[in-house]
Amino acid sequence: MAQPDTFLILDSKLYPGVGAHAPVLRPRLNPPETIVQGKCPVSCVVAPAGYGKSTLMAHWHQLLSEQKHHTLWLSLDADDNNCSRFLAHLITALSKVSSDIGLDAFAQLANGQISSYKPLLESLASDIAKLDQRTILFLDDFQFIEEPSVIEIVDWLIHYSPRQIQYVIGSRSEPALRLGTLRVRGQLHEVSMQDLQFDREETLAFYKSRLKAALSPGELEQLLRKTEG
Q1: Is the pTM of this model over 0.85?
Q2: What is the pLDDT of residue 4?
Q3: Which residues does residue 137 pair with via DSSP β-bridges, in sequence order?
Q4: How far apart, in whole angstroms, are the C-alpha atoms of residue 191 and residue 195?
């Protein structure tokens, strides 16, 4: 898809940028069937820095891709508080599924005289509805998004997008989105800090894979207590 000259698309934002060389296998955190089968349109992975949100999301991205699902990625940063920049990268990510997605939306962006983003979003949703295969879009580092208009765009998308698309959102704090409505409807899957904490077996596996040594039961309990998993 041709991109307007006014937008500099950073290709590195469109791929997972994390992944351990020899990650500890954590089957209990694999994508649940509600996501694999498309029954849950939105997932949120929320925890402070260092808990492995991006690593988990990259793992999901890989697993779902291996299962022949369309998987897309967009890493967010503070510069994405500009609506046009955010939408340009979002549409570019979606266009990787089909070059027909976002042609009209990009034209509206290039015009530069947008009084309301709703027609653009409706056009984008119409394009998504034509997809013949379900797509999962990962939005990582959502904590950087503070601009109300960008938050409103994402909120509109997670509530009004066609069911051909699912969203996985990673953030250090709960996103300022209308998640309560989705939660009540059973349309939200949540992964918390507590879920991401290592249990005893995972801690032992991590320690052995990195230091090639074993921990005594007392050392294990002390490590879990001090690191909070």
Answers
A1: yes
A2: 47
A3: 72, 167
A4: 6
